Amino acid sequence: MKRRVPWIVVVILLMIIGSGFIPTGYDILLAGHPINLDEFVQYEGGSELDGDLGMTYVSTLENTIWPFMIITLLIEEGVEIVPAYSEYVEMEIEDLDYQYKQMMEQSKIKAEYIARGVIGEDPKLELLGFYPVHFLPDWTDKNQVKVTDLLIELDGEKLESYEHLDQLIVEKEAGESTTLTLLRDGETIEVEVTTYPHKDYYGNTVLGVFFEEVFETSKDENIKWQNIENLGGPSAGLMITLTLLDKMMEESLLKGNAVAGTGTITIDGEVGSIGGVKQKVIGAANAGFDYFIVPLDDEWENNETIARRTIREEDLDIELIPVGTIEDAVTALEKLPEKKGRE
What we know:
single chain, alpha+beta, Ribosomal Protein S5, domain 2, Pdz3 Domain, five-stranded mixed beta sheet, globular
């Protein structure tokens, strides 16, 4: 007589197999292959890139199942497992899409304004207002402000700069009432909100929603953007600025070299820190780039430190270029040696 498998064993096996199809609540971060920006950033009458400029990014497997997680850890370099972004972001897909497009649009405007300034032009610049980029999840008034809103006044005072906005908020007490004047669907409205009930690490009052500037600049009709909206958000800022600038300058910054990098950029040309440095530098090295531009360390993010440690631990064949401003980046590129074997 054949011996039957105990039912409890069958149940356990089915549970194990079935659990492999249940999302774990974690994302997997991987090294993505840098995107060559040459075809996305065009300048009519300008020069062609004499080398490669690559925008690095982090490839993400969202809310993955555990078999994929284990396989990825075994075969990929620089893998990180983090809580799933979708688990804690309370925002509709449409709102996220709008936000990313707004970020990229502002990256383009900053790139145009900064590049034209570097070559000696004086383009006009206008601050239109501020768009929301992040809501504190427990702020009681977060439903009062929409992702598509544009903040133009606070308590009836027209906002002249980000510093002006920040100062007006800091002068308030935690939990204090304030009036936001918003441009919504083409109409100006006022909403009453209270500041966040707790102060930040430095003891300053915060609003409960964080904003970024919305600028408009005079156009140079020679600048053409080709399907760049799909490339990502603000971390593309530095590299698209350098790509445009290289095409506008008479002398090549690259001299046959392959340069990848990452970093946000302000309208004043300051380079800001980003996430995913480990994956980005690995991706650049694996793709054969010679240099990697990385934001200098600041008090919050250690981009340069992480990049140096990754290069050392992973034994990567790539040279680091830490920068704090667009001027730093241009100066560093101008000092690069001409690549051997360049035609």
